[in-house]
Amino acid sequence: MDRTEVTFPSAGLDCAAWLYRPDGPGPHPLVVMAHGFSGTRELRLDAYAERFQAAGLGALLFDYRFFGASAGQPRQLLDITCQLHDWHHAVAYARGLDWVDPARIGLFGSSYSGGHVVTVAAEDPRIAALVAQCPFADGLATVRRIGPLPALRLTGHALLDQLGALAGREPHYVPAVAAPGAAGMMTTPDAKPGMEALVPAETNWRNRVAARVGLRVPFYRPGRKAGAVRCPALWCVTDRDSLCPAENTVRHARKAPRGEIQRYPIGHFDIYLGEWFERAVADQTEFLRRHLLAGSPGEET
Fold first, then answer.
1. Where does the Xaa-Pro dipeptidyl-peptidase-like domain lie (predicted)?
2. Residue 270: inside a domain, yes or no?
């Protein structure tokens, strides 16, 4: 496996990334990748990148600023606008690599970043393909799914953090995942065990985020931009999703002009491991090869 530690600049900060180069001189297509809500690159996304690399696709798997191995203070600040800017800077970095074909850049996002890639592709018509896995498509739908009492509890923490930020204080943090009934961003029964199952022994992941993002989640509705995505788009929908309601996701996905939908009878976190990972990554690899490799030198059309 040819994996290199690299950094790229985003708003004056260094974002850490793993760069996967496939065999051969190139130019190669490349898939830009980042994780979901609070996630860092080592939480199973490296397994996807390795599969893409083995199939002849480059991959750039990065951590957002304020998270993981990337720079930025305060830590664990989940700013949606900043994360979208990080995506655009990652794409620009990838297009500048001497072994990459800048016309064949794809995106892979999962959960929260599954919404980000829809937004980025809608804003960048040069994106050649995208994969949105168990994607966050509609903040209002997610808030309805988690229920009014957890949402109300979280709003209190979010207001406390936002007011503290305006006063110049350090962030007020809440767990990214917590047990049902506890304070946290994701408190469905499968959230804490599902997330913890993805965490390796050595990790930069921390189970906390600045609570102010809770004020913004309901208003982030990236699925509404699906109709503006002109590239081929694969939507991998988990039908028993406790966080991103499947039917809502499918409704948005059907508006993508070149969208394809794969459905899996599993929960939100099940797609990262075992049999369902194997099924999903095979579908994703076939899709990406079909749209990023077909017609390139040495490939069948």
1. 16-172
2. yes
